[in-house]
Design goal:
252 residues, Arc Repressor Mutant, subunit A, Serine Threonine Protein Phosphatase 5, Tetratricopeptide repeat, four-stranded mixed sheet, two-stranded antiparallel sheet, 6 strands
């Protein structure tokens, strides 16, 4: 049985065994909603996608969309009763599964936007849904960086540091991100960068929230200062800290 691959991150596309085709705006939204939310009634989808049309027009537009999808891609919509996808694998749905199964590497490396460059201002409820999902997927990808760093800390400290730094850059307001960096830099014997991470945390908290580091962060610093590093570290290269301008481009 052939399974179609529905790409919802980046430019929406549908891949079947012998066909590859970008999806137009309403097709992409229609398939995305079914892929993530599951089976839906025709009336719900018609109202969501054609909010400014009469009920009759919206239902006719939905029927035409179903016909075009069937012509282009075959029987990927089960239309008996509620509408649902069949034999379709969607990357967005897979991403959530991967996160909750602990496959953090694949989630952390996902940087493209959900339904990239598509605008649904003519559909208020759909706009709200897409915005919420973009935030949701971005949050999963950022949190996966932290989880992946923790996994790698058991086997590869340098790789763990890369993902811990990525997390800090993408979520600079998280005190836990700086705590993770402090632990990792200490683990490789680089107390210079360990102290630098604390200083970055201190400056961020002062600038953004007008507070000092938490008791947990202060206790961690005290603990690490009295522990002997396991390995020697290279000399600390000069680098600025406290800036929020180092965030990489991310999808949101």
């Amino acid at each position: 049985m052939t399974v179609a691959n529905l790409r919802l991150f980046g430019k929406p596309e549908l891949h079947t065994a012998n066909k590859y085709q970008p999806l137009e705006r309403k097709q992409a939204a229609f398939l995305a909603y079914l892929a993530i939310e599951g089976a839906q009634s025709r009336s719900k989808l018609a109202g969501l996608l054609w909010a400014n049309s009469t009920e009759a027009t919206a239902r006719n537009n939905l029927a035409q969309t179903l016909k075009r999808i069937k012509t282009a891609f075959g029987e990927i919509i089960e239309a008996n009763g509620e509408l649902r996808l069949q034999n379709v694998k969607a990357d967005a749905a897979e991403l959530e599964k991967q996160f909750f199964l602990g496959d953090f590497e694949n989630v952390a490396t996902q940087t493209q936007v959900f339904l990239q460059d598509l605008d649904f201002e003519d559909c208020p409820d759909l706009t709200e849904w897409v915005f919420a999902k973009r935030l949701r997927f971005e949050d999963l990808c950022i949190e996966a960086c932290a989880h992946f760093a923790e996994q790698l800390a058991q086997t590869d400290l340098q790789a763990a540091l890369h993902w811990a730094e990525t997390y800090r850059q993408r979520r600079p307001e998280s005190e836990a991100g700086y705590q993770r960096l402090m632990r990792l830099y200490h683990a490789i014997g680089d107390n210079g960068r360990m102290h630098q991470s604390f200083k970055q945390c201190q400056i961020m908290l002062e600038q953004e929230f007008a507070v000092q580091p938490s008791a947990t962060t202060l206790a961690l610093l005290e603990q690490l200062q009295h522990q002997i590093p396991k390995t020697a570290a290279p000399p600390l290269e000069p680098q600025g800290f406290g800036s929020r301008c180092q965030k990489p481009e991310i999808s949101s």
